[in-house]
Amino acid sequence: xxxxxxxxxxxxxxxxxxxxxxxxxxxxxxxxxxxxxxxxxxxxxxxxxxxxxxxxxxxxxxxxxxxxxxxxxxxxxxxxxxxxxxxxxxxxxxxxxxxxxxxxxxxxxxxxxxxxxxxxxxxxxxxxxxxxxxxxxxxxxxxxxxxxxxxxxxxxxxxxxxxxxxxxxxxxxxxxxxxxxxxxxxxxxxxxxxxxxxxxxxxxxxxxxxxxxxxxxxxxxxxxxxxxxxxxxxxxxxxxxxxxxxxxxxxxxxxxxxxxxxxxxxxxxxxxxxxxxxxxxxxxxxxxxxxxxxxxxxxxxxxxxxxxxxxxxxxxxxxxxxxxxxxxxxxxxxxxxxxxxxxxxxxxxxxxxxxxxxxxxxxxxxxxxxxxxxxxxxxxxxxxxxxxxxxxxxxxxxxxxxxxxxxxxxxxxxxxxxxxxxxxxxxxxxxx
Length: 432
Fold this sequence. Notes:
This protein has 432 residues and is an alpha+beta fold. It is built from 15 helices and 11 strands. Strand 10 (316-322) and strand 11 (328-334) form a beta hairpin.
């Protein structure tokens, strides 16, 4: 489909863009689209998932590559000339962790994903120079585990403190388009790039056969949405907190953000209260709203005779506990809602897969359990992993018992099964 040298060509150009961003930190670049050529789009195709859900046109990755050269050339010409029409995204709803609400996800067409991936690859090296160290979400070489570690290290160095657990209400659905354009134009004034982004923002969504115009927001699921969200919050929160807020505080403070999830930690309660008071005004200025009940101030510092409060960040509950030597330290464990969500997903899978041969069930279930360990297997969380494994075994036995009304699946038989086909033991996978 594409030559092996093409990713190297893109990488060389990205290095060039990054060097320009570093050399001219205050410049708005007017000429970026010329980097996007046929090879750039071919590499973007290689970087696009081929097994993803299809958009409103029903086109699959195989359909696109069937006449690959012609499709690439047509897409390139349409994008550069302004003829490209961004199709609406197909909206579906997936359950949230609480099981009661759903999260809307937008699914672009495959062709749209390729072009969005190309623009992301163009803008990423430019904004990587601008983004601050406190930002971890959807950035090359950064992960949620690094963000969790940064929170732990920051709070440990301050012996705890006061934490603002920040929650932005319907963030992706309420991004103000005009503010986003203003923010983008501080660094990008290339007409081709801005026109494409504007078309994606206005494309709207198609849900149950009804088209809804894109007035505000950036549909979750779009390839470019995470980058636009990072750019928006870089100016709305990160840069403001670092340059305007911290110099006015009396004590130490730091922020860690992963996409639209953020925690702000302070050494003094007065500083925390002062920032919590101005945060809603700052966000309202950019069309955003803090969730009234989920955004809260947490006293995360133990006192004699009083337990410190806890807070959740990226699926982990942060709390104070004792080390093996009896010293108070900050610990992390799987958050209750994430624990329930993970167990519920496995229970549903066991229910609908109970007809499969037991060895096949075992093979697939091992992968699911290992996937849970891969994310939640951090230092100090072994008990939660062991409890998860115990509950998974119970769930699996429950649905194995319902494979037949004639044969009774006893606990003795279950013990024999786990000796013959053991599930992976709980283990720490991430040293963070």
